Amino acid sequence: MIENSSSLLSWIIFAPLLFGAVLLVLPSKLERYFRTFALVAGVANLLLALKLWANFDGFISEMQFVQLVSWIPQLGISYFLGVDGISLPLVMLTAFITPIAILGTWPKDFSKLKQEKFFVFMVMVLQTGMYGTFLACDLFLFYFFWEIVLIPMFFLIGIWGGSERVYATTKFFIYTMVGSLLMLVAIMWMVYRHQQNFGVPSASLIDLAKLQYDFFHNGVCSAVFSEQGLLFLAFTLAFVIKVPMVPFHTWLPDAHVQAPTLGSVFLAAVLLKLGTYGLIRIAIPMFPEAASYFSMMMMILGIIGVIYGAFCAWGQSDFKKLVAYSSVSHMGYILVGLFSFNQVATAGSLYQMVNHGISSAGLFMIVGFLYERLHTRNLNDFGGIAKSAPIMAIAFMILTLSSVALPGTNGFVGEFTILFGTFQVRPVVALITGLGVIFGAIYALKAYQRVMFGPVTNDHNKHVADLSVREFLAMGILTVFIFGIGFFPNTFFGKSNSTLDSYSKQLMEKVIHE
Amino acid sequence: MQVIESNIPLLIILLPLLGFLINGAIMPIFYRGFAKTPANVAGGIATFFIASSFILAVKAFLQVHEMGESSGAVLSYAFDWFNYGNLVIPFSLRIDALSSLMTLIITGVGSLIHIYSIGYMHHDHAVGRFFSYLNLFCFAMLLLVLGDSLVILFFGWEGVGLCSYLLIGFWYSDTEKANAGVKAFITNRVGDLGFLVGMFLLYSVFGTLTISEIVALLGNPDFIAKVTPVATLICLALFVGATGKSAQLPLYVWLPDAMAGPTPVSALIHAATMVTAGVYMVARLNPLFELSATALSVVANVGAVTALFAGTIAVAQTDIKKVLAYSTVSQLGYMFLACGVGAYNTAIFHLMTHAFFKALLFLGSGSVIHACSGEQDMRKMGGLKKYLPHTYITMLIGSLAISGIPIFSGFFSKDEIIYSTIALPAGFSHLFIIGVITAILTAFYTARMMSMTFLGEERLSHHAKDHLHESPWSMVGPLYVLAFLAAVGGLLGIPHLLGMNLGHIPHLISHWLSPIIAVKHLPLVGEHLPLHEGVVMFGSIVFAVGSFTIGWRTFKNKFFISDIVKGIAGVQQVLANKYYVDEIYDAVVITSLKGISSWAANVFDKVVIDGAVNGVAVVSRFFADKIRVIQNGDLQAYALVMLFGVFIVVVTVYGILNPL
Fold this sequence. Notes:
The structure holds two protein chains of two kinds. Helices cover about 75% and strands about 5% of the residues of chain A. By secondary structure, chain A is mainly alpha-helical.
């Protein structure tokens, strides 16, 4: 039986909420210190996460730091947390991105802030939701945190967003909600099935993994309408909307463009990974035959995401939309990697989740820097900014290189590993996905060129203030990760190896067994 | 084979990287600003680091030599770059016969170009940035040649592409120059995808990407039998990468535009080093290419056609750097031609002599441009000989070398390539004829360039003439060193025929490379050859001298062949416009892709996909409007429905908790 080994994970999840509670009782005249408070809270959480990192045993493939408390026994629901090599990098990503994002989106003028207390509180709730989703080992708990994430995001876009924020936030909310509801039905079914098979209901991931779901290979219809097919599709729909996978991606550009920079950074860096995390944690390992059956379809949709996302990004004149579509393209690689059912490509997908988190966070911050200084996101309004803001130009260049996956940057580590692994099992898929290498360079360099190079045609661009100390710090930390991971991926991802090994091994056994 | 472990290869790449960091990050802090480092300081730092690498390269070269006639290797293992599952890529560097030679060329010619740049870039406001990029380039280029794994090679391969992009667009305020950089990067990326696919294919057969292991496996006859069926595919995929980086048809289009960068960059990156990466890669993997006659034939033909194609364009250009750019494309074609007929050692030999004379010519042209206040159009030059005596004499040596005039280096290497096209198994074919025609063209356009620039009337504008001056010694000095190398470098590869008759002088380059590239004994005199080696040699001398003389005499005050032969004005037009290839690419590829992207972003995504999403919302809303009439405020009806609902819920929950 599982033993409770630590309460560290609970601390990581609920520390932001505790800080948030303290914040609520602080008087509003301290408003200008709320960001500092959020930053301190973020750093405190980072320290907890680092403690987790230091004590995490990379040679164990199972869940560690487990905490199991019965919650609603009648329905088999428990408060069940744990971390393994797959969730650890994502927890670390969240822990690092939070203070970086707060630093990089520091308001210039505290007198113009709108409902600052509620804003910071929402950021705290968001963190709790993100950590909880990555650390939950109970499906209901997972669902609970998954939905919690929606609430702060809804307000962040809806209150502090741009002019079309209501449309964007409604679309974001309803779209994600539709997917989640199917997931909820699927979860209820699984709990019920556990009750049927073993006499007691359980929503624990470990218990549910023991279940066998019926699956029929004869024909698409029977595959879809078999028990496993329906469950797989219900979960997968919820997850791919979040990823987002083409054609379920149109909420993303709208949400990004309307969201405040801090919201965009969290959305791109962490929230999209909730979707791919769901795939690697639940949809694929729980329903391996169905996942294998639909793998070609998923890879093709991933490829479409890579290529189509790149083309859409290329065609944008709004800088923020361009970066948003680049996310669609980069997340496509992860889908290809996960559904190639190759060990190396799966590892690459995990790397890519972290790497995309880093580069997209940085790019959205660059968009934010420019918007704050020039009040525009239109690429035609920029040009020649490298001259007035050279440090920003360097930071943007490094992020661009990471985005185009230049060797030596973190982007290469993810993309190369995915393509390398996928090629071993599906050469043609890897080849077509590889076209993203070309098209990715086109839009990324276009954006860089339009912003930084060329003559200064807009007088406002002559005196763009370079990065402030806080912004510099945020970019500096990201740069360290970009090159650190780029050169020493083992140092950063080595602790995931045994979990990834056993993940692939178990998956292969189940799929080949059929 | 003896292998020793040493840190020298690692130091060789790290020194320029350190120089990059100092000029890129520390100096701007020290001088409180990015554009404030003085040229002498920035240049001095950068030169110091690359020159230190050169000294270490000499040391490594001697070590390889001491281990027994170049068959040894010096290895640095730093760490495992990738290590998960079967993806294990050690970050290790290897100096052997081939890479030591390349390292000497890169650091040696690189040092000279660094020194030259101190003078050339003196007036630029961003010398610090320039020299940091130059050092970064050297780091990446050295990584490319020293990497013991194809993935490390690819690291360098992409890295030099980045530096090329940054340096072509060095003067980024000019949109056209910045665009040229982007064009170079993206064209190269097309090739890089080929390289990636080649690597993956290679791994699927070999199970390793370490070059020394690949070569070792190819020594096993059983393994060769297994590899041969896929060898063609692997080689062609890798060669796609080579056509991108080494500017061969059909991906050469970026190189002429790359002349937008500062001239020392053209000399270092776009003539002497980076563009030869493809040739290096093919030579490095020569045992693999040897397995596929088809692939070799493609390499030879692409090389030959590119050589001729670019050579004809060079004849009609008026921009001095464009002439040299097309000449480079053409000479690279020669190198691939040599590889394709199996004369990899000759390709490397020509790579070396070309590095000397083409770097010299580019730097010379830079000196001319510098003297003429930035003028690049040869029609506006003329008669510069007496104003720029040092530049003239050194460029003349370079011109004689590239034209294949005897005793100068190009004669030896080019003649060997032409001879190889008939001597090696390929036999007499169109390749030989193309090789000869291109040689004639080369002498012709080079003489034309020299003549238009240095001879004839002085056509320079008054403004430019007032500022006309010979370049400082920091620029002229490297020109003389390179002129010396361009003059005598060929003696490292004395042809078989002469070597025999003059008392068994060995072909030093082939001999040195023999552990990497097995020397194929060229058939001896009288062995069923279509043409005697002496005949080929004599013929090429006559053609080169004749063509050079005609070019030299004709273009003192005339610019185009069509000025003399009136009938070919149309041909002139086509050549001057580079066969309209850029226009064709633009119309066929770029415009259509741009159209797709604009359509995807503005029409398909907005109207079709998002339209469907919003359509669902509209339809739901429509039904909601219909259904909401049942919300009529009648409390009794609500209570009834509620009761009904509660009943259903209770039954369902009961059903779940107590399954039948």
